[in-house]
Each structure stands twice: as C-alpha cells, then as structure tokens.
Write a structure and sequence with these properties.
It is a single chain. With 286 residues, the chain is an alpha/beta fold. It folds into two domains: 95 residues, Ribosomal protein L30/S12 (60s Ribosomal Protein L30, Chain: A), CATH 3.30.1330.30; 138 residues, SPOUT methyltransferase, trefoil knot domain (Alpha/beta knot), CATH 3.40.1280.10. 29% of the residues lie in helices and 20% in strands. The chain has nine helices and eleven strands. The relative contact order is 0.12.
Length: 286
C-alpha cells in the first residue's frame, strides 16, 4: 500500500477528503467515508473492491493491506485527522466508492418488498437500509426528499449493508403515482399490522418524519403498529423495521387472529392445587 503523508490543510487531497463529510462532496466525487472499527473491518473484508483509500493519523500504525494492494493510504497530521474523524473514533477511516444508483423501473417488479425511503435524517436512512438487509427486502428506493445513503451518518448506521441492498433512485414522495403492485403505507389509523396478510409483491412507503404520507398516497393500504396509551408515534426507521420483521415472519401465512390468553378461575386453580397435595390423588385413587 502506497502511503501519502498530508501535513497541510490547503492540500488538494485533504480538501477533497473533507468535502466527503457532506452530501454534496459525496455526490460530486462518488466517494464516501466509513468510520468505526467494526464498520471498516466489515467493509474491508466483505467488499474489498469498494475500498478506495485508508485515512489514518500520524499517531496510528499504518494498516497493513498487502504490498500489492491498490488501496492508497493517507497519513494525516494529528489535527487534520481530528477534523475528518467526525465521530471521534480515533481509528483509521476507509474511503469507499459510491455506486451509481439506477433509476426506478416499474417492470419487471421484483417479488417481495420494495422499500421506499423518504427520510431526511441520514441516521434514519442508514437504519432503514440496515433493516432492509436484515429482513430480505428486494430493493430500496431512495426518494428525492431522502438524505444520501452514503452520507457519513447514514453509512455509519447502515455499515456494510449499504452494499448488500440493491439501491435505486426514485421520484419525490409527492410524485409516486400508481405502482403495478399494492402500495402499503404506515399510518396510526391503519389496519393492525399484526393481522395483515402481505401480498407476494408490494412497495412499502413510510412517511416523512413529521408530515407523514402526502394526501395523494393516502388511498393506499395503510398499516398501524398498536402501541400503549400515551405513546403517539415511533421513530420512522424503527416503525419501518417492525413492519419488515412482521412481513418476513408471516411470509406464506394467512392473516392471524390474535389469541386471548386463557385464564382459569381462581377457585378452580385452588381446587387443583389441593387435589395435587392429596396422597390419594397422586397415586391415582382419588
């Protein structure tokens, strides 16, 4: 691995690396920063072809990737590294290549769940992608309102899963129009998700943080997650993960009826306890 030392903040390479801390820089250079020891190890192990460079401080030992590794190393001065280490991990940062997101195609529509992601908070975007990978979503559609899935906060939440889920670019949530498969939204006034029978192919459209689902999409099948009194709503990414889990758990099954726990009357329980203590009952003569 070839190591390039960088000591000055006016270095063009350092300026480019700093631009990757914002969505505009990620889009402009098609590169992103991955920080955190677990996330960086996982991506380097499972997706080595996506690794472009390793950034580390002069306090770090240069990571060994092999003499023939095409990955370049950038050794930054201590203060320069602190500025690029957004989450204060104190660990080397991996620069990854951002793939091009193809435009959403209506046909052929893949089986299973197509997840639409409109979230403006990059942490919610990354969390939704992680849930999509965990529960086997066919593809994730990034809507125009959404934060970039390779924003530093998003990729920190998603980890290597950002490369495991097929990601396509979709329209605005206000321009979804009609889909060739059932559209399912999340709404407090919707059907109980626990008893819902998911179709073989569908798209799941969670609402934006705050505004929720636009009026034009409200005609879709809406699902609700029952909650205890006093809790108005769940975090958008958390609610998405719950629905995806229930979808995966109920694949191939019909709608379930909620079972009520059977409880014996108290007097009957007392009677049985007394019978068990009776020696004639224990030996079968009672």
């Amino acid at each position: 691995m070839k190591v390039v030392p960088i000591q000055r903040p006016n270095s063009p390479t350092y300026k480019r690396l700093m631009s990757l801390t914002r969505s505009r820089g990620v889009k402009s250079h098609s590169l992103a920063l991955v920080s955190g020891p677990r996330q960086t190890r996982e991506i380097a192990r499972d997706f080595p072809d996506q690794c472009e460079a390793v950034v580390f401080s002069e306090d770090h030992r240069p990571p060994f990737l092999g003499r023939q590794s095409p990955v370049r190393g950038y050794q930054l001065a201590r203060e320069l590294f602190r500025q690029i280490d957004l989450f204060d991990t104190g660990q080397p940062i991996v620069v990854v290549k951002v793939p091009r997101f193809p435009a959403l195609k209506q046909r052929p529509w893949p089986p299973g769940c197509t997840l639409y992601i409109p979230f403006q908070d990059p942490v919610n975007v990354g969390s939704a992608i992680r849930a999509a990978a965990a529960f086997g979503v066919s593809r994730a559609v990034i809507l125009n309102e959404a934060a970039h899935p390779f924003h530093p906060k998003a990729i920190r939440a998603a980890g290597a899963n950002v490369f495991r889920v097929p990601i396509v670019q979709g329209p605005s949530i206000k321009e979804l129009g009609s889909a060739p498969v059932p559209v399912i939204t999340l709404s407090p006034g919707g059907k109980d998700v626990r008893t819902y029978r998911f179709p073989p192919r569908f798209c799941l459209v969670p609402g934006l943080e705050g505004p929720g689902i636009p009026a034009g999409t409200r005609g879709a099948d809406a699902l609700a997650i029952p909650m205890k009194n006093g809790v108005e709503s769940l975090n958008a990414a958390m609610a998405t993960g719950i629905v995806l889990y229930l979808w995966q758990a109920n694949q191939g099954q019909g709608p379930k009826r909620l079972r009520k726990e059977k409880t014996e009357p108290r007097w009957e329980m007392i009677y049985h306890e007394k019978r068990k203590r009776d020696p004639c009952y224990r030996c079968g003569k009672g």
